[in-house]
Structures
1.
Amino acid sequence: MTPPVCSSPADSLSGSSSVSPLLANVVDKPQLNADGANLCRHLHSAAQQTPTQLAVAVQQAHGGLLTKKFSYQELSFDELDKLSSRMAFALEQYGITRGMKAVLMVTPSIEFFTLTFALFKAGIIPILVDPGMGVKNLKQCFAESQPDAFIGIPKAHLARRLFGWGKHSIKKLITVGGKGWWGGVSLPQLLSQAPVDKPYPMAQLSHDEMCAILFTSGSTGTPKGVVYSHRMFEAQISALKHDYQISHGERDLATFPLFSLFGPALGMASIVPDMDASKPITANPSHIFAALERYQCTNMFVNPALIERLGEAGTDNHAVTLPSLRRVISAGAPATIASIKRFSQLLNDDVEVLNSYGATESLPISKMGSQALFATTDITDNGGGICVGDAIEGVDIAIIGIDNAPIAQWDDNLRLPAGEIGEIVVSGPMVSRCYYQRDSATLLAKIAGNDDVIYHRMGDLGYLDADGKLWMCGRKAHRVEALAPDNEGSIKRYFSIPCERIFNTHPSVKRSALVGIDIDGNTTPLICLELKQGLSCSCSAQLYHELRELAQTHEQTKGITRFAIHGGFPVDIRHNAKIFREKLALWAQATYKE
């Protein structure tokens, strides 16, 4: 059996031999199925059972810093269901129909929710991208995904024209929040001819048919389009219900657009604060605190950068508490224990921050409560990696040997024993089967198993402990393989998280980053340092001496003797935590002197 690949429509129609039989149904063409699937069935059910209950509220901030006021746009489940049905009729009348692909570049808003659910209802495939990935990457994403339609705010249309996004494939244009000056039609024009309060015949799709393309952020490589099916979405909804115990009637403070869509699907209201969702670090904490208080939110999905920002703002203002929250879900990157502890001071004593591990290709995979995480501090600070907890129900986590080559067929003999560091591999119903139009990436990341199971190689390194808990040791691409310090010609592997967490314990170090540089033809480990505020490079000689001594006390860092102070690490826009080590490696190579 060959590993899966995703084909283009031409491949699937021509019977190209490049398409694996395992994935023959995961192509971008409609598949008629009388007993099919559609994510919107959850929304329709909520609209029937609790029609007047709040589904979506979008905050808008007005005034200056001292005269801040807020207004809110709201939709009930019945209103969201009916408006998205009207929108689906309108899209269909305009010529955007089932099986077509539509870029959606709309800020979190009432329109974002209604359009997304309309696309799902109609069987139109939304293409969701992170605007923070950069102009070059965005153009590449659209070139690969070949969208038929572009739905966006005026700023997105301006960028589309300036940079030529999708110019060879896009035939339909819709402007949201502005006039239709950018070609095509405006949203009000589109809706003017659509029927009101008429039930839309929801598209019934195969459970494994492509229903969305979500592009990875590109923070650890080139963005890739992850093919989502309704089976994947259903598995994610199931995990949120059972593993996170989210129940009907809750209210979620949603700071990430994709997660906010799960709210209505779970019978939970999504409360969207006034913030730039692509840059959470710039969010105004007062906006979020105001929305939490007004709607008495019980759940909050937040990334590590925002946890730190809210914790600092809340503890500086001792009047801030968040008593309505029952759970806080953190994902996207590892949050520091210090930032979680600070933020937890705003919560009730029995409320935990649930740290989730996963990726766009497979989310969620594991979770760990903050109290259990706090108990692992000593292990992490001594190079044991970051514990990301136990597997979600239905997920199998395995560790395999570190290898950059494709693996065609899964074999349980690939599994490494407990305690041994290798690549993290996962399988489960929320694991994607392929990338769109990226066959080579699919071959590298996916392993075909028996009974139609797909194993995804996370690209992360880690190990399972004796109790089955997963520990993260960093990206596979960020390991440094160098001559062992014993000079006997053997190779030693240095892993980013274990090494960096040891050096981060030094009181002068804010954070560190392991890179490899070339010295006399040999790869050599070097630690880039970002110092705490107020410290300067004038202390470097003494600092480097202390860090070399620290390195010798841990097996993970023995042999590391080179350091370089950097003014401020390049990091990803969304999480402000994923360090661009590739850029740091180039800087270190150019600036390091013996």
2.
Amino acid sequence: MFVCRSCVRKTLSSAAGETRLLGQPLRSSLAPASSHRSFATAPPAAKSESNDVESALAFAAQPAETVDLEAKRAKRLEFAVNKDLQYLKNNFKIAEHVLKKLGSGNFEEALLLTRKASRNQSVVVSWNHLIDFLMKQQRLSAAIKLYNEMKKRAQVPDAKTFTIIFRGCAASQHPKMAVAEAIKIYNSMLVGTVKPNTIHLNAVLETCGRAGDLDSLFTILKTMNEGLRAPNNQTFTIILNALRNRPDLQAGLDEETTARNHAQNIEKARLIWADAVNRWQKGRIVIDESLVCAMGRMLASGHDAQARDILPLLEQTMKVPRFDLTEGATVAGESQEEPQPTQVAKPVQYAKPGPNTLSLVLVCLKRIKKTSLATRYWQYFQTALGVSPDKDNYIKYLQVLQMARGSTAAANAIVAMPKEFLTPFSYRVAFSTCIHDSLNQHAFSNACKIFEVMARKSRYPDALSMRLFLQCARSNFRHLTEKYADDENAASQAIGKQIVTAIDLLWPSFRILMSSFSFSDRPTKSPEDLFDLSRGELQEAIATARRMIAAMDKVVQEKMADEEVCRVLQSRRVVLNKLVERHVAKEYAMDERTGKKLPASEQAGLDADLDRALRKASVY
């Protein structure tokens, strides 16, 4: 143990510079008198002797126990690093050991090891690992400081170093700072030993694009050449995505200004796409799905006439057939600037379609009101192209079918959807499609097929989906009235049978739904807490119960079923009615206990619900 703190300072002064953390120096380390910089968010000013004195005074003011612990820690770290360096004979082994230390989260030891190894040999790979670690931790400023320290220690950055820095800037959560640092380092490369290549160019363009800085993006784009920085498919993809996500297009401007900005933006995109197609025809770049979809989504952001060019675009680059055209026909507003595959001068490699392309096709069909073609494209992509639809594809397909009122295709899609893709939203869209497909005599049958999937694959059924299913049974009866146009009683019995079928399917699922509120796995302290926590979901379930009561009343009061069926419905109605009554009573009790007062209109609604529930309970 040291006798005085002055001795501690002198003893640790040699190790202080080595054990200093990036932006977090050890308490026992003093600022060295040399030109070594400490790391901070902003560039520090030149250190003066007064700062050293203040640091020394602050260090001397620490308790003796703290000084002893940190001194021992620094010595242990120093000893461990020196021991490792005895066995790490080459830079490959050192880089491997640094990566292992970083993998275990021991950044301090990895940094000290790299600094010590830098005295005698080149360990650029180890520095790259350190910078990459900080970039992944979203410590942009600290990573740039470490890059500067690397150069001061005579460690010459290589191409991989700059790739790590630029990709880290592109993924940074501080886009403005990232753009400034990336451009500064990129410009230094233009006059340095290591020249930027296409990978560096794309990473810097990605940084500018994510920050919405199009001026800087096009400035960097001017450094493109036909040699080391020749553009590739990723370059054009980044530019098109940056144009589509321009911040000024997202602003709340008037419709005329927004339309004009979109038109100008798409014209720029067309020029960039023409350059890409020209290079593709000459075999200088490969067009892939990402690039095609980037251009397609740019067209989809414009008006309908521009969106029509999406299908010709896919035919040109992917040889996807045009189901919207008959042989020899043309579409109004279709662009003729881009050549068809038969016009390509040299053999080229076409892009391979995938889920992204299928999603783009569905968006296009919805925009140009060609929803009837959705099923043809859906089947073609799966059978002819071997594309496996993802979750987003299924959702977009269901939304297009909703517009097309294709309940049969919607039911088939729900049946084919993997269990992990099925959500309450997908069921709701499918049931809504069945409701609006009123001209289809099989709409209710399709709804029953969808409901069976929900009952089988969902842990708890969705309350709103259940109400939509019941609505489908009550509203889709046009085919029955037409079938029994001459017999009103027969038509009424057929409609009643349809409603009773829906209630029979709903009954076990509704009981399962209500049991979820009694045996909940949510951590609560009391039943009141559980009721308050699930209050919104319970209100949805009670709303479903009320719709079921209304449907039962319609069947019973209008005698749309035989007496035996009506007696079953009456007994079920009593159960539902008591359930509603208990819920309304709990709502009143909860509001009185918590002191919450509802608006007069809502309070009157609750009073009416309670009176109605009590009155109907005494009827049957």
